[in-house]
Design brief:
Elements: E1 5-10, H1 14-25, E2 29-36, E3 59-61, H2 69-72, E4 77-80, H3 91-95, E5 99-102, H4 109-118, E6 123-126, H5 132-147, E7 152-159, H6 168-176, H7 181-184, E8 185-189, E9 195-202, E10 207-214, H8 218-231, E11 237-240, H9 241-261
Parallel strand pairs: 1-2, 1-4, 2-3, 4-5, 5-6, 6-11, 7-8
Antiparallel strand pairs: 7-9, 9-10
Helix pairs in contact: 1-8, 5-9
Length: about 260
């Protein structure tokens, strides 16, 4: 039997709860604990939908953590869906050799610089949107731009009405395409949309639209699982979801070329 990946989860908001549910349900993972910013009130476990004791993960409050928390409650990997300042709390985990997935949107340049320093000692993967589909969209957009560099390009991001900031994913797409995000990123806030990103290429007699939509926040958990299963075997270094997908795409293209040649 393959040993399960012991995971710890930072963040227990709407996305964090969905991620916890996916980790608890997955046969290859053992969710050891969840850390949230504010003290749990009536919630003692990461999911009340699971009734067996082994299907539960305790929830701890961030301010109550001791300096030896990771030694007392060891994990193989931390998945972070908390807040933009969480990178400041990574040092002790890094010292313990724990691998980290940061799924925080809009990390600052100093935060990214800190992650890259930590990556000298352990494997760290950063993705502002960890769904598999959105990262494929980013790769496909960059490739199509190279094919038709004269096309007009606009990015449209749609989210639930309470989201205030511009989507970090949309900003990353704009940056990867060399676009001014103030001119080419269009934001829409309506209803309860989980997240939708569209890259529009305009040519003289045709329009090409690349679209990704998250139907449920569980997609973040599935993306985190996809990333964690890859990252667990990697040496110290700084990685992205695009790198994982590019590696898989190269493998598939190689197989296709071999098939065509035969």
């Amino acid at each position: 039997m393959t040993k399960k990946i012991r995971a710890g989860l930072w963040g227990f908001g709407r996305a964090g709860k969905a991620v916890a549910g996916e980790l608890l349900a997955h046969q290859d993972f053992d969710l050891q604990w969840v850390i949230k910013k504010h003290p749990p009130r009536t919630i003692r476990y990461a999911s009340q939908a699971f009734h067996r004791e082994e299907d539960k993960a305790p929830v701890y409050c961030e301010k109550d953590l001791s300096s030896d928390f990771y030694k007392n409650f060891p994990v193989d990997i931390i998945i972070d869906f908390s807040d933009a300042g969480s990178y400041k709390r990574y040092a002790e985990a890094v010292q313990s050799g724990i691998k980290i997935i940061s799924a925080i949107s809009n990390l600052s340049e100093p935060a990214l610089a800190t992650l890259k320093l930590h990556a000298q000692h352990t494997a760290i993967l950063y993705s502002p949107n960890i769904t598999v589909g959105i990262n494929f969209l980013m790769i496909a957009s960059s490739l199509f731009q190279k094919i038709v560099p004269h096309a007009d390009i606009e990015i449209v991001e749609e989210h639930f009405r309470e989201k205030e900031d511009t989507s970090g994913t949309a900003l990353k797409i704009a940056k990867s395409l060399g676009l001014d995000n103030h001119k080419h990123v269009n934001s829409i806030r309506v209803g309860g949309i989980v997240g939708k990103h569209e890259v529009i290429f305009g040519l003289k007699n045709q329009t090409i639209r690349l679209v990704h939509e998250s139907i449920n926040k569980a997609a973040f958990g599935q993306g985190a699982i996809f990333a964690a299963k890859w990252l667990i075997d990697q040496p110290a270094g700084f990685y992205t979801m695009e790198e994982i997908l590019m590696e898989r795409m190269r493998q598939q293209l190689s197989l296709m070329e071999t098939h065509v040649a035969t």
